[in-house]
Amino acid sequence: MTTTAQPAVLPAAAAGSGRLLALRRALRSGPVLFATLFLGLIILTAMAANHLGLADPMAINPVERLKGFSAAHWFGTDSYGRDLLSRVIHGARVSLLIGAGTVFAAVLPGLLLGVIAGYFRYADMVIMRVMDGIMSVPGILLAIALVAVTGANMLTVLIAIAVPEFPRVVRLVRGLVLGLRGEPYVEAAVSLGTPTPRLMLRHLLPNTVAPLIVQGTFIFASAILAEAIMSFLGVGMPPEIPSWGNVIAEGRMYFRMKPELILVPGFFLALTVLSVNLLGDALRDALDPKMARRV
């Protein structure tokens, strides 16, 4: 009896240990380790921005406008005399909130509709044609149009960025569910009369978690970039709210005179997006069973 039970247990244990080893190996690599540490530092700094003793990012001081690097202003000041370091750190909070909120706004409904489209054939045609219609419009243009209609604030910008990402999640989950429907354990559950909601919750949804985690990291990075682009074009966050896109947009008129107004927030923006993408690649390698078996 013990010999017949072992083959069913060992593959799962081996797969789990393989994924753990792959994740450890990825985190030991220099770029991924740096990306993890940098993201952790950015998140902690953004969360503690109000307790770091920084200058008010909204305080206007014409006397201090366009000052260079100094002990009082590490990165200098902008055209309104506002501390650039404080605006970059508070802008990180806004950009990270937009990124995280977009992930939840795109993944949660996308997961639900993707499972329905992949499991119910009669709903597949309707849902996927709607998704194809949304994806036929360039994402940034659709986001700009939505903000132009509803007005610019954090919630509308978040929703506008999440809408173009939403169909991609639906297509991903639908493809996974279509592949899982033919698995023996799913067919066995159906033949035993398992209720459909329970079948989805216990057999289908858990198998979509790993790919969705990886997809979520790329949505996070894409949302940060989209917010910066929209704010730079003047259709994103309101100008009074510091975000990396707004800081870059306000500094473009003084680029020749004071390039750090663009280079500093642009550096943090690029490094954050790069770090998220590196971490997403590491998670993909660790959570992919094929990659885990190579360890």
UniProtKB/TrEMBL annotation:
Domain ABC transmembrane type-1 residue range list: 92-280
InterPro entries linked: BP-dependent_transpt_permease (IPR050366), MetI-like (IPR000515), MetI-like_sf (IPR035906)
Signal peptide positions (record): none
GO cellular component terms, A-Z: plasma membrane
Tagged with keyword Plastid: no
Keyword Ligase (UniProt): no
Bilayer topology annotation: Multi-pass membrane protein
Xref: Pfam families: BPD_transp_1
Transmembrane segments: 32-52, 94-120, 140-163, 209-233, 261-280
SUPFAM superfamilies registered for this protein in UniProt: MetI-like
Primary location recorded for the protein, binned into one broad class: membrane
GO BP terms: transmembrane transport
Classification via CDD domains: TM_PBP2
Swiss-Prot/TrEMBL keywords: Cell membrane, Membrane, Transmembrane, Transmembrane helix, Transport
Subcellular locations according to the entry: Cell membrane
Domain of life: Bacteria
Family the entry assigns: Belongs to the binding-protein-dependent transport system permease family.
Protein's recorded name: Peptide ABC transporter permease
Source organism of the structure: Bordetella genomosp. 7
Lineage: Bacteria, Pseudomonadati, Pseudomonadota, Betaproteobacteria, Burkholderiales
